[in-house]
Amino acid sequence: MQSLFSKVKLHDVHENVFRNIVSLQISQDLFDDLSEAPEDWALAQQVEDEVKPPTFISATPIIHRPFEDAHWFNAITWPFQHWQASRYSDGQFGVWYGAESIETTTYETAYHWYYGLLADAGFQEKDVRIERKVYTVACDAALLDLRPFNKSQTGLIHKTDYSYTQAIGTRLHREGHPGLITHSVRNPSGHCYVILNPDVLSDPRHCCQLSYRVEGDTIYVEKQIGAAWMSISVSGL
Question: Domain RES: where (predicted)?
Answer without folding.
Answer: 79-207
